[in-house]
Write a structure and sequence with these properties.
Elements lengths: L1 H26 L11 E7 L14 E7 L18 E2 L14 E2 L14 E8 L14 E8 L2 E3 L2 E4 L2 E14 L17 E8 H13 L1 E6 L13 E2 L1 H4 L3 H7 L20 E8 L6 H9 L5 H7 L13 E7 L2
Antiparallel strand pairs: 1-2, 3-4, 5-10, 6-9, 6-11, 7-8, 9-10, 9-12, 13-14
Helix pairs in contact: 5-6
């Protein structure tokens, strides 16, 4: 009886194995839908693209990827990529995710700064900031007012007002950089104006804000010249006879404007290039290099406020007006 029971168990086991094999053979031909082989097309970068770069068609290519939900937010239409700016680095062969692109430049201040300029903010109020009527994209001149300075009882600097910079673009008012935003109804007591200032003038502007009072002057919509001015002291407010003033206040001699063969108003220019003076340079040589005419050195001299042409120093940066034809 014992052996018979063992045989039955063994037979049952063999039958179970055989049944499993037959079931496997039967089910194997039955195919289920194969979703693993489905693919979708996405767009990727041909090369690594730096942040805040405008995307061109040549930077984009198509590739096939598995039809997976992780690719759902990747852009598949090149018209939604080309012409836009990258918000952050996109690596080679990385897909263009919508969160890494900028639709427009309105919210990217650094993209509005050009060339050798830098963005810098200054404090203003209703009086010094044209009553908060300046808007992003306007151009302003900047005046600095320096109060009288004494050494003991001797006046070494009178009250002075001077146009410091001209034709400076306004980038932002406080944290707003979009021109079409609603204008404030009330003029705030103090607010910030961010300006696009040539790098050679950044230090001068910073010093002027720290030592004096700055005032913004709105320029006309129609482009105007860059004007050379001599500045003004308090004597200019009551000056009737300059000779009499010099006799009364010999320490405040009014420096007469020097005559020159070149009048600034004779030449039109809206922008400068910046040149670093080299050893052996003269203003006449520089003028010959840029204008093909050494006589126009006076224009460079006037724009940079250089009184003695022989006093230029190697390593110093100067502005060279780009003349319009």
């Amino acid at each position: 009886m014992k052996n018979t029971g063992k045989r039955l168990i063994l037979v049952s086991f063999v039958l179970a194995v055989v049944s499993s094999v037959f079931i496997f053979i039967y089910l194997k031909p039955i195919k289920t839908p194969n979703t693993a082989n489905k693919e979708r097309t996405i767009l990727v970068a041909i090369e690594t693209i730096a942040p805040r770069t405008v995307i061109e068609k040549k930077m984009v290519k198509e590739i096939q990827v598995p039809d997976n939900a992780i690719f759902a937010d990747y852009i598949v239409d090149s018209s939604n990529i080309v012409g836009k700016y990258t918000k952050e680095t996109i690596l080679k062969d990385e897909g263009f995710h919508k969160d890494k692109l900028l639709n427009e430049l309105n919210n990217e201040l650094s993209l509005k700064i050009e060339g050798n300029n830098r963005g810098i903010s200054i404090n203003v109020n209703g009086s010094t900031g044209v009553s908060d009527l300046i808007k992003q994209g306007d151009f302003v001149d900047i005046i600095v007012y320096l109060t009288e300075k004494k050494d003991s009882q001797k006046i070494i600097r009178p009250d002075l007002s001077k146009i410091l910079l001209q034709n400076i673009q306004v980038l932002a008012i406080d944290k707003v950089i979009n021109r079409d935003d609603v204008q404030r109804v009330a003029v705030p007591t103090n607010y910030l104006v961010t300006l696009s200032v040539p790098i050679f003038d950044i230090e001068k502007l910073t010093l002027a804000e720290d030592t004096g009072t700055l005032k913004l002057v709105l320029r006309p919509l129609k482009p105007d010249y860059i004007h050379k001015t001599e500045g003004a002291t308090w004597q200019d407010l009551i000056l009737d006879n300059s000779k009499e003033m010099r006799n009364l206040f010999p320490e405040y001699k009014i420096k007469p404007a020097k005559e020159s063969k070149v009048i600034i108003g004779d030449y039109k220019y809206k922008k400068y290039v910046y040149y670093k003076i080299k050893q052996g340079d003269t203003l006449r040589k520089i003028s010959e290099t840029f204008y093909g005419d050494s006589k126009k050195y006076v224009l460079i001299k006037q724009v940079n406020g250089i009184w003695e042409e022989s006093l230029i120093k190697a390593g110093t940066g100067i502005k060279i007006p780009v003349l319009e034809k």
